[in-house]
Amino acid sequence: xxxxxxxxxxxxxxxxxxxxxxxxxxxxxxxxxxxxxxxxxxxxxxxxxxxxxxxxxxxxxxxxxxxxxxxxxxxxxxxxxxxxxxxxxxxxxxxxxxxxxxxxxxxxxxxxxxxxxxxxxxxxxxxxxxxxxxxxxxxxxxxxxxxxxxxxxxxxxxxxxxxxxxxxxxxxxxxxxxxxxxxxxxxxxxxxxxxxxxxxxxxxxxxxxxxxxxxxxxxxxxxxxxxxxxxxxxxxxxxxxxxxxxxxxxxxxxxxxxxxxxxxxxxxxxxxxxxxxxxxxxxxxxxxxxxxxxxxxxxxxxxxxxxxxxxxxxxxxxxxxxxxxxxxxxxxxxxxxxx
Length: 339
Description:
This is NitT/TauT family transport system substrate-binding protein. It is found in: Periplasm. This protein has 13 helices and twelve strands. By secondary structure, it is an alpha/beta fold.
């Protein structure tokens, strides 16, 4: 599935550049011994001066959740702040975050577990902006309509595909499985890129797939059956994703970071007020037709800044599921200029 990387040159214009291949980096390659140390406890700079760095590469996944970056590009919000931002496709946050840590990107859009995994591993990460909140409509676990799988309990002994292991899809599915009294050790989780999931499901390579938009609507169009939503019951309303930078980059570039945050908060406010703007932008960065984009179920965008207290649920889930050994300091991770 070709994915187009976008860069902004003029306001309200979407300019395509060469298609970029998905990154194959892994968090495992970033050991605590070689990682940058978390930032110290000094107050964050106000960040109201001229940007220290103006050209930024941001790792994204071509899903509806990440529309805010492309809205900020298309509406000129980054340009207004003196920034030239390019969106670089990756398979998921588990690929984009290591690339950011390695210095290949200056920011990454990822689900929160990717950031917490890096922080727990000794890498200083700052969460600088909120992405979306999960809801029951915009994601879910799908099976073949004739599979005979009728409930979450029927997945015991089955293969379930997620886009990245030990991350949002797997973790939230396990929470719901445990809520249903299942033995999660009897479920095999496999990693697949989102574009490959429905074809693999149809061919019998897996028994179930976790999908977000626009891939969920494509699955509906293909006749697959939604078994359950990830963000329901104990996981209802969980903050799903955000944007992060390394603490070292933020410390060295406080004005750039603050400008980046202001632009994204404008985009989030626009989407919170007019979510349908996402339907217009999604076809510009994914192989989604306008007709399909009109049918997708949208996540929830929220105006304002990221807040540590809203993310504590991920500490609980990740420790409980054994993804991290102990809670991370989210107050230190969430960056607010001047505080």
